[in-house]
Amino acid sequence: PETTTKVQSVPHFKEKYFSQILDHFNFNNMGNGTFNQRYLITDEFWDRGVGPIFFYTGNEGDIWEFALNSGFIWETAGLQGALVIFAEHRYYGKSLPFGEKSFRIPEIGLLTVEQALADYAVMITELKKQLDATECPVIVFGGSYGGMLSVYMRLRYPNIVAGALAASAPILSTAGLGDSRQFFRDVTADFENYNPSCRDAVQEAFQQLENLAQHEDYGHIRSAFTLCKTPGSSQDIHQLKGLLRNAFTLMAMLDYPYSTHFMGNMPANPVKVACDIMLSGKNLLSALRDTVGILLHTTTALTRMFKLHSKCFLLFVLKACTEIEMCFESNNVTDMFPPMPFTEQDRVQYCTRKWGVVPRPGWLKTQFWGDALSTASNIIFSNGDLDPWANGGVRKSISSSLIAVNIPEGAHHLDLRGSNIADPVSVRDARRKEAEIIAKWVKMESKKMF
């Protein structure tokens, strides 16, 4: 039966721009050059001058997309009298340091984690002065890469940030820690846990695709997947396999109990929907095509999604070439996907060719502590068991103030989304716990200030 969705009332955000420093770490190269960094702000819940500031550390995309899909933040702000700010990450949305030239080399060189964190630190400090809020505690929030940034803000700027909620933040796997096969093994587990036959069918479908590709039967592949044109090379097939694998990954990440339009149009419980289609197809390749069609359901939708996300994805790939380590591989043995190795050597070759940069393995671990977090404090690490990124994050509490919140029925940062009547009890409990911890941090920090 179709689930009735509770309509979440979106607060009135004002869209503003902050004059931000181009290069925080070089006083000669850019001098005092600035760019306009976009942020969204609402004070409709704020106990002015006293209540906390809830600050979202924007990640790889237009800031409105994150603001409209993070209802927990403003729901909690309403209970705790907080000012709410969503800051856009440099080089995304309308926050382009060099306008249309921002994506060229060498202008793209100022796209780093460190520059983004410094942006947020400067913005928080200056806005607190402008709003006469210098004594108001700041709690940062973020999901996925944005959650990583929230962790790093607390580590790097504890003088500015009193606490952080990092939802679905894979701070360990992206620092090069863990098993490179874990991610796609966990994507597979989502489908396997619904129905083991689903995993088997997908695995066999990819094996059939691999066999056709090895025999260069490209016409058959075009027909099976209803492609616009016939693949002409092994590289075309590699891209097709990557597109198919990514579709399953998104369905696992966004396995919410209600339909969403975040990162594409997704039905409620997409893993279940996908498996039901996969197991009812006439043959495995057409079933694979129809299953992926849940996400890429029309040419128009696919084109729109590509235009919206391709530049964001390309920019994130650059970060994966410099600081963030994402050498994840599939092998069709421990997972259901085609063998697609991606080693550190592959990373170096790609990044050198595409961006003219050589990755520095271990740099993120050096900069932001890796798994040696015991001397930090006031961070919530929330992860959902349905999220394939979860095991790349912190799953066990490290101390009384470094708290892991695990959500058995949660997908990718579901706890950051607004309340919905379809939410499982586990996510409601997680939000309640998170709000209580945040209130405690605010109270402790306020005692120091007032």
From TrEMBL:
Belongs to the peptidase S28 family. The keyword Iron does not apply. The keyword Hydrolase applies. One of its GO terms (biological process) is proteolysis. It comes from Scleropages formosus. This is Dipeptidyl-peptidase 7. One of its GO terms (molecular function) is serine-type exopeptidase activity. Keywords: Glycoprotein, Hydrolase, Protease, Signal. Gene3D superfamilies: alpha/beta hydrolase, Serine carboxypeptidase S28, SKS domain. GO terms for cellular component: vesicle. InterPro entries: AB_hydrolase_fold, Peptidase_S28, Ser_carbopepase_S28_SKS. It comes from the Eukaryota. Pfam families: Peptidase_S28. The lineage of its organism: Eukaryota, Metazoa, Chordata, Craniata, Vertebrata.
